[in-house]
Amino acid sequence: MKRLGKQQNEEEADIDITPMLDVVFIMLIFFIVTASFVKESGLDLNKPPVTDTPPDPDSPRPIVVEINNLSEIRIDNRLLDKRAIKATVTRLKAERPEASVVIKAEKKAKTKAIIAVVDGIKAAGVQAPTISLAKN
Question: Phi and psi of 115, rounded to 5°?
Answer without folding.
Answer: -65, -40
